[in-house]
Amino acid sequence: MSLRKWSSRGGAFAMLLAALASGAPPGGLTHVAAQTPEGDIERNVVYGIVGGAALLMDVHRPSEPNGIGLVWIWGSGWQADEPYGMSQLKNRGLPPGVLDLGYTVFAINVRGTPMFRYPAPVEDARRAVRFIRHYAARWGIDPDRLGGWGGSSGAHLVSMLATMDGEGRIDTEDPVERESSKLQAVVARAAPTDLSRFDGRGIDALALFIGAPVRPGNPKYREASPVTYASPDDPPALLIHGDADVTVPFEQSEFLFAALQAQGVETRLIRVPGGGHGANDILATYRWFNEHLLTDEQAAAMEPLVAAMEPLVAAQERINQGSRAAAEGRIEDAIYAFETAQRMHPRVEIAAGDWNWLCWQGGLWNQPEKVVHACNRAVELNPDHREYRDSRGLVRALLGDFEGAIQDFEFFIERIPPNNPRRAQRQAWVEVLSAGGNPFTQELLAELRGG
Questions:
Q1: Which of 19, 114, 231, 271 reaches 20 to 30 Å from 386, CA-CA?
Q2: Which domains does the chain have, with CATH numbers?
């Protein structure tokens, strides 16, 4: 089977419930809860069953729908919650304004590390698109106009949906699997796109996702890379990336941009000067979807609403400024920028990754008392993210909370490969902390900052 024709044949999806396989409408685990004046949420819609565990999505329904659906995938470093290895839907909001524009948003979870690895998350994302398309009438959306939006590892999955052959299966009784998994427009923020040429801070998460060290020429990395599948039939793609991103380097978006251009695909790359891993351009995102998924009349009607979101964009830039200040050790400036952003627009929600960045940098610059609230906020938003627990462990240790630090570091240790040098380093820290000592000297903090 060629890489272009790779699909989720057989395997875990053979275990789909009979009701789903027969094409019966989804149900059972769903309920509707009020969200905001802009719409409501239909939670825990089952779009597949794997090994007895449900694949779930939340459907965010606008009060005035425009008939278009967007698949939204959060970034998580391909990690997922324990004990079932599924990604987390709770405590995560949507980008502000998307429901105002009338889009119906399908926030999907997927299987992830450490329990599941590639290709499981890709299979799940493809299944979700097929499911949404098959039941499009239920949500009043056009099955032939679906968009995809994601950041970081979510952007990787969205990019795979954009570039891989979405042809449905004809050798199955499951009508969902006969549907196409191809999208009609995508926005990918800080996307890993050529995994064999990856050298950012996220390399450990990538190696765990693939199940092998990152090495040039590794066929598994090539198989899992969006650039591998670029072809003339790919949908219009907007790529957004901060050029100061150390987690997923900016060149990763350049790789996919070049590959799509070479195939004649409509694509645009927005470079956010000085932007870190959370850099974004919400207005450009909405205009991209409006241009490529709406009619000309709909897009023109939505433009005043998009333009009115300018204060939101300014608030987001303040968050980016705060992240840059934190990296430079200007922790008080970073905190002020975050607080200012929250005052600038009522819908600004600082992401868990931004809180974690402030937490980690505050620890590295030995100002733990100023950032412990950021650490707790990051963990509150995503309690099972090993990196967030690792950052909080550092801050807790600096504050003298050795017991809490040990708990956080042990959580991290349990979720990182045995041969990873960071695991051994954290184990050494735990040993010192358990003996009542503190390993975090000024020399070690300076070394960690340099790394």
A1: 271
A2: 3-308 (3.40.50.1820), 351-450 (1.25.40.10)
